[in-house]
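hey
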């Protein structure tokens, strides 16, 4: 599936890619849909404005802002988004799920007078249709937050103009689908691994095919920053002799922190990947047994990673042909592994020497609470 995702001005509805890690509690606000508008009378505290957002497969797909009137809020919402999960954010207040009911006509139609409220004055007389079914996040992710913070793999970049402002249009793979995101040209890369620190402060046009990134957006759904995770240079790190840090930490982190996210660390081959939180591991994928992927670091130390059977797997090829980034499938079987003969493993399951092994691939693995949810494989 291919999704087109655009970021436009705050005064208009913003179609967007990602949201900050701020979410509602279990309470819901009621809304009514009529004639490409969504009405709600509820207000949280003294909020004077609110943003209504819709999610498709856990990704923010449309947002609209409205100012408060005496009768509540009226949002312009195209009908195509009404079946998606909805959340309302009150500026200066809380964030809530919204249950939206469609109605054939309001009991008191909005007046043509500009002074009249657009919100219905009473409950609709017509029988409301059932609340729309919520689209679940992809099965690979335990929580919506885990889905939103999934890494994205860059496929290509172009430039476009929206409302007189120039945007960089970024085509990428995210949550197993191809998406297109338009980002304002003043947005910059705010963090990068030690090996790619020269990218900090540069714009979207500095990105290349195969780069792995994370995006952060504001409450209106507009990308506000790019967190850089890894740039493939297709070197054979285990034999090149370079200083890539313990467990390749310099390739994927800034002093051990990945994607500028608190608590997002580099997995330690000596300690394994069990426990809570988010980790990234980088290394040579050398074996698969069921849902377990075995990876090895620069010293040959091996580590087993449990992989969700629905984990998103992408492949980035070292080729001059173009179109080198693709969605490879789900789970361990989609991982392109490096062949290592049994004789190369020692009694502890580690690789005794890389000298006689033809390394054909490396993998970047995102692990959430001990289970891999996203894997990017780089073939040499």
């Amino acid at each position: 599936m291919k999704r087109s995702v655009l970021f436009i001005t705050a005064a208009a509805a913003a179609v967007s890619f990602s949201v900050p890690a701020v979410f509602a509690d279990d309470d819901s606000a009621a809304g009514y849909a009529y004639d490409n508008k969504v009405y709600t009378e509820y207000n949280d505290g003294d909020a004077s404005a609110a943003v209504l957002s819709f999610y498709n497969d856990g990704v923010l797909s449309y947002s609209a802002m409205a100012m408060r009137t005496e009768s509540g809020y009226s949002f312009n919402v195209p009908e195509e988004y009404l079946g998606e999960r909805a959340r309302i954010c009150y500026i200066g207040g809380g964030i809530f799920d919204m249950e939206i009911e469609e109605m054939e006509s309001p009991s008191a139609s909005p007046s043509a007078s500009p002074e009249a409220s657009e919100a219905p004055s009473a409950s609709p007389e017509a029988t409301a249709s059932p609340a729309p079914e919520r689209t679940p996040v992809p099965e690979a992710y335990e929580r919506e937050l885990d889905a939103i913070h999934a890494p994205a793999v860059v496929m290509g970049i172009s430039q476009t103009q929206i409302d007189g402002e120039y945007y960089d249009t970024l085509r990428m793979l995210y949550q197993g689908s191809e998406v297109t995101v338009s980002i304002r040209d003043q947005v910059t890369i705010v963090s990068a691994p030690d090996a790619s620190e020269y990218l900090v402060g540069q714009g979207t046009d500095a990105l290349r095919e195969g780069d792995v990134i994370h995006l952060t957006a504001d409450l209106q759904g507009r990308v506000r920053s790019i967190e850089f995770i890894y740039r493939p240079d297709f070197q054979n790190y285990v034999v090149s002799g370079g200083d890539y840090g313990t467990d390749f930490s310099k390739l994927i982190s800034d002093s051990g922190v990945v994607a500028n996210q608190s608590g997002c660390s580099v997995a330690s081959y000596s300690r394994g990947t069990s426990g809570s939180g988010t980790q990234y591991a980088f290394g040579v994928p050398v074996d698969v047994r069921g849902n377990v992927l075995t990876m090895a670091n620069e010293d040959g130390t091996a580590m087993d990673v449990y992989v969700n059977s629905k984990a998103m797997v992408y492949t980035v090829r070292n080729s001059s042909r173009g179109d080198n980034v693709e969605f490879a499938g789900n789970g361990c079987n989609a991982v392109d592994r490096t062949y290592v003969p049994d004789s190369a493993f020692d009694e502890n399951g580690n690789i005794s020497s890389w000298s006689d092994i033809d390394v054909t691939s490396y993998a970047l693995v995102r692990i959430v609470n001990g289970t891999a949810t996203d894997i990017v494989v780089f073939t040499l």
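The longest helix spans residues 144-148. The helical segments are 144-148, 237-240, 249-252.
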